[in-house]
Design goal:
The chain has 371 residues and is α+β, with helices and mostly antiparallel strands. The chain has 11 helices and 18 strands. Residues 301-368 form the Protein FecR C-terminal domain.
């Protein structure tokens, strides 16, 4: 296989015909895939050794889909790569950013000003004419100064409260917040925080999706996550927050987490979880965590230990863009034990089919397991 074609395939620059050619070649022989992975590793190492500009564009969200996938694969390949990236991003974030002046509705401000001015002028008609001129002139001067001050304060206040956004689309994203806390965003997630965190609290908002937090310890400055009608407060710990329709799910991995809603407060310890609906006002019971699979998107590891096959398919359906289904209900309770690390869904299903004597059938975005 042509090396130049493989390199263009890696960065997403091949056309449909070339894509099909490479994919057929990969499927023909396991040795072909091994050769491809070798070329890919060498190419990515060379690419990132020479291309600092691509990393910088990834930090500010200006990469295309193929470039973003390349960066994320490089980050997952080695812990040293991720550490170098986070250090580089921390330096990047510390650089002074240009002040963005928000748009001010000058027309509305001027109309409000004229209404107040005309009302004031009407009220002042009962006073002597000579005195009215003096009063109107003084009021005009004061009102003009006040209008300028209001617009200036609005611009300054908005610039100080500028929101920074971290978002993921069709891939998991890991990033660092200004305090050094690490966040892993599951697919289709949006997280926001102020560009200038206050001295009192480190506040973020989970607008949608799911995030695993590893919070940098700081006893003086609590870390607060707002989502829905719930506020989650920690000092330094790791936990998972998932926003589901009209509710919030919190699972604690390490440390202590305070969950506040309505006028209630509940404290969660490791391996405890809580689901709060936005309309809840009564106390909600915390529960033990069923298993560790809630972190599937963080480390892409699955450690099944006598796990019922039904639960296995549920986890795989969450982790990949396919719905894995069991056609025969008798198979749902079969215990399954296996460990997978950084494997594709096809690789996992191949091992499962062999070990459990299953047949795998793919129908569009559904995968059916039968015997």
């Amino acid at each position: 296989m042509n090396k130049e074609l493989l390199e263009r395939y890696i960065v997403g620059e091949t056309n449909e015909v070339e894509n099909n050619l490479v994919q057929r070649w990969l499927e023909e022989d396991p040795d072909n895939r091994a050769e491809y992975l070798k070329v890919k590793n060498v190419f990515l190492s060379y690419l990132y050794a020479m291309n600092k500009e691509l990393l910088e564009r990834h930090m500010v969200g200006e990469t295309n889909e193929a470039e973003r996938m390349i960066v994320e694969e490089w980050l997952e390949k080695d812990a040293n790569n991720r550490e170098a990236y986070l250090q580089m991003k921390k330096l990047w974030d510390s650089l002074p950013k240009p002040l963005e002046v928000p748009e001010v509705d000058v027309d509305k401000a001027w109309m409000d000003f004229k209404i107040v001015r005309d009302r004031r002028a009407l009220e002042s008609t009962e006073t002597p004419k000579r005195k009215t001129k003096v009063i109107q002139w003084n009021w005009w001067a004061a009102a003009s100064i006040l209008l300028v001050c209001m617009v200036g304060f609005y611009v300054f206040d908005r610039s100080q409260r500028k929101e920074m956004h971290l978002a993921s689309q069709e891939a998991v994203r890991q990033d660092a917040l200004p305090d050094g806390s690490i966040v892993t965003l599951n697919k289709n997630t949006e997280l926001a925080y102020s560009s200038t965190w206050s001295n009192k609290n480190r506040n973020v908002e989970l607008k949608k999706g799911e995030v695993f937090f590893r919070v940098q310890k700081d006893k003086k400055h609590p870390f607060v996550i707002a989502t829905g009608n719930t506020h989650i407060t920690v000092l330094g710990t790791s936990f998972n927050v998932r926003r589901i329709p009209n509710a919030t799910e919190v699972i604690v991995a390490t440390g202590l987490v305070k969950v506040a809603y309505a006028d209630k407060e509940i404290f969660l310890r490791p391996d405890q979880m809580l689901t709060i609906r936005d309309t809840d006002t009564m106390k909600v019971e915390k529960k033990p965590v069923q298993d560790k699979f809630y972190k599937y998107y963080v480390d892409r590891e699955f450690n099944f230990e006598n796990t019922p096959l039904k639960r296995v398919t549920e986890v795989l359906s969450q982790a990949y863009d396919y719905k894995v289904m069991i056609d025969d209900p008798a198979l749902e309770k079969i215990p399954y034990t296996a460990e997978f690390k950084q494997n594709s869904l096809a690789e996992i299903l191949k091992v499962m089919a062999k070990s459990l004597d299953l047949k795998v059938e793919v129908r569009d975005k559904e995968i059916h397991l039968t015997r």
